[in-house]
């Protein structure tokens, strides 16, 4: 298991399939929040506090887990300390959980979903992400700036899907409510690149 500190309020945890096997956790029990998964989670939180000083205290937590074809699971944990955070757009596009009511949700699109949207914190990260995607992604893409965050919108494709999602998860968080956010970005966001954002921004990295 490996833990990276993204910011004061966010960490990313890499859990391999070997790690799950050592604890007798299969994919089904991991996704459905078994007692074994709960124990693993709090062990990880204790490790994050000891190694990185990431203290949750009474903070509410946003937890998202995505499968990685090579590494197993990548879990992103964000502390939400300010009540005003819940009044922002984030309350519509992130799952919010308290420490005593944690659920893991695999990041998969709904049936028939053809669009993926990822939230990226900085323009530099957005350009680096596009540079990584450029060799493996050839679909339509656009980029928006909204409320200080950057959003990359991709048309979903079957080829290299796991590889693409693995790269995306390294740089940002996947938006779950795609339908809502598409409308929100069109109305309130600033369109940065309307066509081939991956190619255009990737060249800037």
TrEMBL record:
Protein name according to UniProt? Negative regulator of genetic competence
Q: In which domain of life is the source organism classified?
A: Bacteria
- What PANTHER family is this protein classified in? ADAPTER PROTEIN MECA, ADAPTER PROTEIN MECA 2
UniProt organism field: Thermoclostridium stercorarium (strain ATCC 35414 / DSM 8532 / NCIMB 11754)
Question: Which family, according to the similarity comment?
Answer: Belongs to the MecA family.
